[in-house]
Amino acid sequence: MQGSIGVDEAGRGPVAGPVAVGAVWVPKGFDFELLPRVDDSKKLTEKMRERAFRAACALVEKGILRYHVALISAEHIDARGITDAVRTGITACFAALDADPATTHVKLDGLLKAPEAFVHQETIIGGDASEPTIALASILAKVTRDRYMVSLHETSPAYGFAAHKGYGTKQHYRAIAEHGMMHEHRRSFLKKFSEGLGTN
User: Fold this and answer.
1) Residue 2 CA from chain centroid, whole number
2) Is this prediction's pTM over 0.70?
3) Considering its fold, how many domains does the chain have in total?
4) Residue 88 lies in a domain
5) Each residue's pLDDT tens digit, 35-47
6) How many CB atoms lie within 10 A of CB 85?
7) Which of 10, 40, 164, 198 lies 20 to 30 Å from 185 when distance is taken between CA atoms?
8) In sequence order, what are the residues at sequence separation of 6 or more whose Cβ sits closer than 8 angstroms to the Cβ of residue 182?
9) What are the strands of the beta sheet with 3-10, ordered from one edge?
């Protein structure tokens, strides 16, 4: 069946937790009115993202949509870099979606690229704000990653992951200064924030 895939990532900048890469397949002519507001995930409230996420999952259950979110670990990011981590996530997403490269049009946000076999691919700067398929991928990636960070908070509450989702806030830096780094911290990123670690 002909269709298109939107691709985006969430969590490139935090100092803890995985980066999430989301890809969603929609059939040709898909009506986005079937979903609540679909927009760049950063423009939506948490409740709006959750609402859209649940609606998308309902369409997945009906066989209308397919999606996959790959979470690539902080350990991978430290060992091979964030660019490689995102690329690894994209590869995992396309393997899971099992779409036909010949009949699938791929739209990716920013500077992302799909596997070379997908000859009909288009990279769009700011695509999460202008292309609904990319926007939906951004929502799926963001909600999946946020839920992961909340679950991490339940096992390691001292760091406050449920509040800041791993981003470099003053609260987070204070927690690191008090408790040290854990396995979910991106040590390669925290080198850049050494000044912050010393003053917060």
Assistant:
1) 25
2) yes
3) 1
4) yes
5) 998 988 889 999 9
6) 27
7) 40
8) 16, 156, 159
9) 66-72, 19-27, 3-10, 104-109, 121-124
Token match 């989301």: residue?
22
Mean pLDDT of all residues in 137-161: 97
Annotated binding site for a divalent metal cation: 8-9, 109
Closest CA to 12 of 75, 80, 94, 74: 74
Is 165 part of a structural domain of the chain?
no
Look at residue 15 and tell me if it is in a domain.
Answer: yes
E strand or H helix at 109, and its extent?
strand 104-109
Is residue 62 packed enough to be buried (19+ CB in 10 Å), middle (13-18) or exposed (0-12)? exposed
Query: Which are the contacts of 135, defined by CB distance < 8 A and separation ≥ 6?
Result: 6, 8, 38, 39, 40, 41, 127, 128, 129
Contact criterion met (CB below 8 Å) for 21 and 72: yes
Contact 19, 85 (CB under 8 A): yes
